[in-house]
Design brief:
Elements: E1 6-10, H1 37-49, E2 56-61, H2 70-78, H3 81-86, E3 89-96, H4 103-111, E4 114-122, H5 126-131, H6 138-150, E5 154-161, H7 168-181, E6 184-189, H8 197-203, H9 212-228, E7 233-236, H10 255-271, E8 277-281, H11 282-289, H12 294-303, E9 307-311, E10 318-320, E11 323-324
Cofactor: [4Fe-4S] cluster
Pfam families: Radical_SAM, Radical_SAM_C
InterPro entries: ELP3, Elp3/MiaA/NifB-like_rSAM, Radical_SAM_C, rSAM, rSAM_horseshoe, rSAM_sf
Length: 330
């Protein structure tokens, strides 16, 4: 998926109807959006003035957009209409929960220029959904995604790994479900924040988040799965935040880069008895080497010193011991 020029509008946790165990309870149910239509128009104008490439796309993030009062939804969407009519915006995208949406809801959103809808799926395992207190069933998620696709929307689906009652097998099942339905995906590792039920579960010894190593390895496999299904993954790992913002869990600023390195690393370790040299395009070599030399260190821990050589090439080619290496998912 080509990278879009997005102007984000944040409506933090507005409209959310439940208290998932991983969300800060002080920021959800009962707090209405403080964003007005005037705010939206101002932020779009500022985004365009600050060099946004025209046509841009405005995105409503952070809350459960379709569970805001319909009047509030329409107010926020209406603010974007002059920019759409002028050609400054190509459309609207929004993030929401996958329930209580009908054909008429999607028709209304489409009439305002909404083209992309992202749903937080998190997991398709009933036990995980119950343990996370998601408040939505797999059947409801399936119905909503089907209706959205039939209405012509570009659909993004988000999954979380490492939730209570989760497992590698359940994450794989969720990814396959998403890959069969979504146009693109996101992978978020479960991280523990204060003022959440998950935090209390950790304190009581009832929950242990994935280690960074486990989350990286699991995400690498899921990236392979999505890639094999030709479903782009537009984010792996949580957005950048301060270390003090969370308590425990597999967070890292370079999380995706670690996962991409492991994707290349794991098959090499499995296939080769000896590795003396790695050569390829700058991008391919850098991806394998990984952040802080993650992949290089892992290779050299097994094979001893390895010669890495980069060359100017637009192709994502990589050679191991002088022979072409192809990373294929199996």
């Amino acid at each position: 998926m080509a990278k879009r020029n997005i102007i984000p509008i944040f409506i933090p946790f507005a409209g959310c109807p439940v208290k998932c165990v991983y969300c800060d309870q002080n920021q959800i149910t009962g707090i209405s959006s403080t964003v007005s239509g005037e705010d939206v128009a101002h932020q779009i104008a500022r985004g365009l003035e600050n060099g946004a490439h025209i046509p841009a796309e405005v995105a409503f993030y952070g809350g459960t957009f379709t569970m805001l009062p319909v009047e509030k939804q329409n107010e926020l969407l209406q603010a974007a209409q002059p920019f759409i009519r002028s050609g400054a915006l190509s459309g609207i995208r929004l993030s929401t929960r996958p329930e209580k949406l009908r054909e008429e809801d999607f028709a209304r959103l489409k009439s305002y220029g909404v083209k992309t809808v992202e749903f937080g799926i998190q997991s398709v395992d009933p036990d995980v959904l119950m343990a996370a207190k998601r408040g939505v069933s797999v059947e409801e998620m399936d119905r909503t995604v089907t209706v959205a696709k039939a209405a012509g929307f570009h659909v993004g689906l988000q999954q979380m790994i490492g939730l209570p009652e989760d497992s590698f097998e359940k994450d794989t099942k969720t990814a396959r479900w998403i890959a069969e339905r979504g146009d693109f995906a996101r992978i978020y590792p479960t991280v523990v924040f204060k003022n959440t039920e998950l935090y209390a579960m950790v304190a009581a010894g009832e929950f242990h988040p994935l280690s960074l190593k486990e989350a990286i390895e699991r995400s690498a496999y899921l990236l392979d799965l999505y890639d094999a299904a030709s479903v782009p993954v537009i984010r792996v790992g949580l957005p950048q935040m301060e270390r003090s913002a969370y308590v425990e869990g597999p967070y890292h600023d370079n999380f995706r880069e670690f996962a991409e390195s492991h994707r290349q690393l794991a098959p090499i370790l499995k296939k080769y008895k000896a590795v003396e040299s790695v050569e390829g395009s700058h991008r391919a070599v850098n991806r394998l080497v990984g952040p802080f030399g993650y992949g290089r260190k892992a290779l050299e821990a097994v094979y001893g010193p390895v010669a890495f050589r980069s060359k100017n090439s637009v192709e994502e080619e990589l050679q191991i011991n002088g022979e072409e290496y192809t990373h294929a998912f199996n």
